[in-house]
Amino acid sequence: MGNLLDGKKILVMGVANKRSIAWGCASQLEKQGATVIYTYQNERMKKSVKRLVDDENLLIECDVATDESMDKAFTEIKERFGKLDGIVHAIAYANKEELDGDVQNTSREGYAVAQNISSYSLLAVARYGKEILNDPASIVTLTYFGSERAIPNYNVMGVAKAALEANVRYLARDMGQYGVRVNAISAGAVKTLAVTGVKDHSSLLSESESRTVDGNSVTTTEIGGACAFLMSDLATGVVGDTIYVDKGVHLI
Ligand code: NAD
């Protein structure tokens, strides 16, 4: 039996370190035979990504906050790697002071930052990606249950995740004609760099763990497994959906 993703080239955006969900995805994609190309946010991130990825040629800088950086990155990806079969978007950011207390205190600027990096960036990725994606191809983003329920301190990020999930549905409609499927994975809480920005994140993590069906948090390997499935030709019928990979937290 061959691997699920033999011959596929997939771009993974959002590895910060070995705890990153993006790294769990990349590892599973590689395990299934894909060649993985990585974008990192800035020089600081490059250092930690280099500790995980031996081949520096597979690393490209991309700050999704600006069109200039995205333009440069996707031009470089096209030149170096040609067509791709998939993109994993595992990127989110909000200013730390917005992930604390009452949501009505969210600043106008903080709201815009969270939306820009965590939600709008998926539209931009799809727009740039369209030029270099094969038909068929798959885009997968990462969301969280805080889009649907008011989770303490998650606040502006929950609002951004709700927008991200709406982006998935609209993109799925408009990218379908190019053979690109777009889906989201709603992952359970895992201790990553991003989560430590949420005030009292240890309560969020322990509360989440206590609500899983077996009392154990989902792992980034399990999330990566679902990502590999969504990238594969086994998932050609899954379009515009949000799939929970949270060990049942959303239903308990
Ligand atoms: P992480 O900190 O490992 O990854 C977040 C990544 O976003 C980092 O690599 C960071 O460099 C990148 N990023 C932030 N701003 C950027 C910018 N301007 N340009 C380019 N990259 C930028 O944390 P993670 O938890 O693995 O987060 C990955 C995704 O998973 C996020 O969308 C997050 O919301 C989502 N998610 C996380 C959890 C969780 O509990 N950790 C649960 C569900 C969904």
TrEMBL record:
UniProt xrefs under Pfam families: adh_short_C2
Keywords of this entry: Fatty acid biosynthesis, Fatty acid metabolism, Lipid biosynthesis, Lipid metabolism, NAD, Oxidoreductase
Its EC number(s): 1.3.1.9
GO molecular function term, any single one: enoyl-[acyl-carrier-protein] reductase (NADH) activity
InterPro entries (alphabetical): Enoyl-ACP_Rdtase_NADH, NAD(P)-bd_dom_sf, SDR_fam
Gene Ontology terms: biological process: fatty acid biosynthetic process
Ligand binding (NAD(+)): 14, 20-21, 41, 63-64, 91, 161, 190-194
Keyword Coiled coil part of the UniProt annotation: no
Catalytic activity: a 2,3-saturated acyl-[ACP] + NAD(+) = a (2E)-enoyl-[ACP] + NADH + H(+)
Pathway per the UniProt entry: Lipid metabolism; fatty acid biosynthesis
Binding site for substrate: 94
Top enzyme class: oxidoreductase
Annotated catalytic residues: 144 (proton acceptor), 154 (proton acceptor)
Subunit relationships: Homotetramer.
NCBIfam families given in the database record: PRK06079.1
PANTHER family found in the cross-reference section: ENOYL-[ACYL-CARRIER-PROTEIN] REDUCTASE, ENOYL-[ACYL-CARRIER-PROTEIN] REDUCTASE [NADH], CHLOROPLASTIC
Family (UniProt): Belongs to the short-chain dehydrogenases/reductases (SDR) family. FabI subfamily.
Protein name, UniProt field: Enoyl-[acyl-carrier-protein] reductase [NADH]
Species whose genome carries this gene: Ligilactobacillus pobuzihii
Organism phylogeny: Bacteria, Bacillati, Bacillota, Bacilli, Lactobacillales
